[in-house]
Each structure stands twice: as C-alpha cells, then as structure tokens.
Design brief:
The complex is a heterodimer. By secondary structure, chain A is mainly alpha-helical. Chain A is 73% helix and 0% strand. Chain A has helices at residues 4-13, 24-55, 60-63, 77-83, 90-121, 127-139, 143-155, 163-170, 175-186, 190-198, 203-214, 216-232, 235-240, 249-259, 265-298. A two-stranded antiparallel sheet of chain B has the order 1-2. Chain B is mainly alpha-helical. The chains are: A mainly alpha, B mainly alpha. Chains A and B meet through helix 2, helix 5, helix 6, helix 7 and helix 9 of A and helix 1, helix 2, helix 3, helix 6 and helix 7 of B. Chain B: Residues 95-309 form the ABC transmembrane type-1 domain.
Chain lengths: 300, 321
Amino acid sequence: MTDLRESAPATSARTSVKPSTGSPAAAAGRSVLKHAVLIAVSIVMVYPLLWLLVSSFRPTEVIFRTPGLWINDLVTSNYTGGWTALAQPFGHYIVNSAIVVVGAVAGNLFACSLAAYAFARCRFRGRNLWFAVMLITVMVPIHVVLVPQYILFNNLGWVNTFVPLILPKFLATDSFFIFLMVQFIRGIPRELDEAARIDGCGHGRIFLRVMLPLMGPALATTAIFTFIWTWSDFFTPLIYLTDPNSYTVPVALKSFLDATSGSNWGAMFAMSIVTLVPLFLVFLFGQRFLVKGIATTGGK
Amino acid sequence: MSAISELSSIRTGRSGRPRTPEEKAARRRENGRDNKAAYLFLAPWFIGLVVITIGPMLASLYLSFTKYSLLQPPEWIGVQNYLDMLGDARLHHSLKVTFTYVVVGVPLQLAFALAVAMVLDRGMRGLPLYRSIFYLPSMLGGSVAIALLWRQIFGTQGLVNQLLGAVGVESTTGWVSDPEYALWTIIVLHVWTFGSPMVIFLAGLRQIPAMYHEAAAVDGATRWTRFTRITLPLLSPIIFFNLVLQLINAFQSFTQAFVVSGGTGGPADSTMFYSLYLYQKGFGQFEMGYAAAMAWLLVLIVGVLTAVNFLLSKYWVFYDD
C-alpha cells in the first residue's frame, strides 16, 4: 500500500518520456485534437452551471426562452425576492447550515484523528478485529440504522435540533475518514514518535505534539469533505428537521419548490447560487488537498 | 489494495522480536500502556459503534419482524414484512429502477472517467485547469441546487429543448415528466459527475512506470495493445476500488430522484429509487417495521454484490506485488 508521503513526491518527480510514434507533425496534430476534445467536454461540463448563474440574473419569463449565456436585461430582483420568499429570510437557513457544518467538521476532526492514531500507532489486543469492523462499517448503508436511530433521537427529544446531525460525528461514525487518516499516519516515519517516546512522552503527548502537526493534509482533506458533504446533505436533515425554523439550506431550497410550485424559477435559481457559493469557495481553495486526499485512498 | 487488502493483511508495524527476558518484560509493559491508551483513544469510536451503528442495526433487525408505527409499541409479526415484500409490486418496481440506474449509470460514469483520465496526460498543458473543470460537477452534483437545475434543464421549456430548438429540432418533450425518459435524465446527471473517479484514475495512471510503455513501444506495440496489455491490468486495482465504491453509493441514491420528482418518485413511479420508496414507507406512512425490513434487503443486496465483486476480482484484478 503506497501512502501519500511516499507516492506524492515520487510520482510528481517521475517526468514522463512519452514513447514517440510517428512524425512531429502527427504528434502536434494529436495534441490539437486532444485539446479540442477536452475543450468540448469542458463546455458540456460547465455549461449548465454557467447557465444557472446567468439565469439567476434574468427575469423568470426570459429564462424559459434563452439557451444562451448573454444577458440583455440584468435584474437582481431574483436575489432580493428569493432571499425573503420563505418563512424566514434565507440567511436564517444559512446560519442553521453553518452551525451543523462547523459541528460536523469539529466532530470528525476530533474523533476520527483519535481513532486513527490508535489504529495506526498503538498495539493493542483485538486491533486487527476492530480495524476490520471499522472498515466494514464504511460499507453499511445508512438505511439499516436509520429507523432505530430516528426512534432513539426522537425519544431523547432531539428531533428538530441539530444534535442528530452533529453528535454522530463526535463518535467517529464516518469511518471513511478514520481509514484515510490511518493511511496517512502510516506514511509518517516511526522514528519521530519513537524519539518522542524515548524522551518520555506518552501517547497523549505524541498525538498532540508530534502527530497532529504532521497530519495537516489528512486533516484538511477530512475537513473539506465533511464540509462539502454536510453542506449538501439532504437526506438526514429531511428526516430530523421537520420544523421550518430548523431547516438547513438544502431542505429550505427544496421547500422553495413547494412554496412557489415551480413558477418562480428566477428566485429559486438565485438561492441555488447562494447555496452553491460556499461549496464553490471550498472547492476552489481546497481542491489541491482533495486531489491528494482522494489519490491516497484510491492508491494501491 | 487499500481497504480491501487491509482486511487480509494488517501490518503490525514494528519489526524485530524482543530477544532477552528484559526486552520481553519491557515490551509487555509497553503493550499494557498501549492497550490502555488505545482504548482511551478509541473510546468515542467505540461508543459510536455501539450506540449509533451496531445497536441500531440489531434494533432494526428486530423491528423488521414487527409492525411499528412509532405511536404504538412494536407488535411481533414474524416474517410477515418479508412475505409482504415478496408481493409488493411497487417494491419490485423500485428495485428494477434502482438496478437500471446502477447497471447503466455506474459503468458509463466509470468509462467516461477513465477515458478522460487517459486523455489527460501527465505533464500536459492546462492539466490542472481541465481537472478542476471536470471535478467541479462531482463536488456540486449531490446538492439540491443542482437537482433543481436538472429539473429545469430537462423540463418542457428547459435548456435541452431550447438547445434542440436552436439547432432546428422542435421538441416539446418534458423529459423529467415523461415516464420513458425521467430515469435517464438522472442517469445523465450521474455520468456528469464523473470527476471524482476520474481523479482516482489519474492518480493510478501516474503510478504506472513510463518505462513499461516505452519498452512496449520499442517492441512495436500499438496504442491499443499498450492500453489493453499494460494500462488496464496495472490499473485494475483502481478500477476495482472505484467500482466497489460507486456501486455501494449508487444503490443508496436518493436526493436527485427526490428533488427531480418532487418527492413522489414519479412520473408513474419511473424514478422510484429503492431508498426513496423506503423513505416513503418509513417516514411518509410510518410503517417503520416494513422500512426496517426493506433496509435489510438492501444490506443483503449490497453485501452480495460486493462479495460477488470480490470473488470475480480474482479473475481480472492484478496486483503487481
């Protein structure tokens, strides 16, 4: 199993010497063709997103008549109107989502890093068994725990609070991230923590002072993925948040559909853009880490 | 490879066995400390495992043998739920819809991901930009906003019909409201999000030493031969990883179908995904026992498919170590 620290420098340093077949002219032709194909695919990929953005600045009647991306009469009423179209101003739902996201990120960072350290660096009885259990839980469909979890949280009076969305993260139920961090820790040279151990550090200090500072990329990947998945998560809030005041952004956005019965597309698009902006920003700043993080989990 | 080979071979990490009695005693003391520390570090995970995962799994197994509406205590009815599932035409239909989605959508998405990853050579001009563009939809694709966009794009007056009109093809088909096409619009959405498997493929392609290709090219191998004889076998563990992951995820798809159909699974149940039907049973009609039984059928299906995948992998997945 190659881990990030071994694979990343090795692969980037390995410059490619492409086997040359055919004349330079043919190679240039292939390169042009390749870029043409890639540009065509790129357009198909981003066109719907750009169209969504542009449409959010168009009067609703015009949206349905314009496939193009140019704006003749720019309006911002979709944003002002959409912001206040639901029971609460849209900012209220953004705050709700923000609370859930911050809680979920904190929970995953805290609990998954602890568990990962134990799996990667402690030798304890039953380690292999528990590690296998952890990996299997990655594959358990949430539906099978859904009903009893709902009953549990309902009996505790936590429906319509954010606890059911946050608490499980503090109990490391997103095992995928434990696995990701274990992989990463294994790439950190053991000499570092053995040296700390000889200096008299226990596991607690080694974890806090040696491991955590070195785990930056793995923690960043976890934080970014948790952010994106929690922000977009629709299923769990749909089940636990039935009071419109407690809606998170995706549920609020969906209730838009009911409230305006699909007639006010302009406002709906405008609010869609609003909910996509945080995702897009995280994507923009985090993609470097994400690509690395994904590469680690998929690597051999 | 990754999660998979982990299960069979878990590295013990420290090399060298203790030789002298003193060393052994020291190792034992150390292990004792390790045990205590490890269980402390794992405490949150253990609590989660019991309270949030295994406990509810057992409870849901029990509930699947009961009739339970949340209001009255569960009433034991034996295997009645499972018998009812045998005769539930809507459930069979939802399985068919889900299987169609998985069988068509997953391979198509992976094929796209691999094809584009192959075109994106290492050291290619503009690679980071292309990669970002292709990756973006898969980051946003799970969100309600994109599902709403999809609903409009494939609507009667949607973007697709406008574009068709622009090239001279008049169409008044409401793709999402036509039972014949509705599921396919969701499959298109799935394929559109090929970015995340693509990134994994890109990482895998980088690990294939360039010299293999060079040697083969010197021997006169064509591009196609090099693809089938070098790239595919060496990439097979990554393909397998993507396949297992995508299958498990695709079977649980929910948001897109829910939003595109307005929560009904319509038109005419054409987008009635299994998890959507489960949601309707459990949280629409409060047949919690039946929903629990449905969930266990899903576990069974996903489990069997994953196991079959692992068994078949012996014949096509190659590990070079």
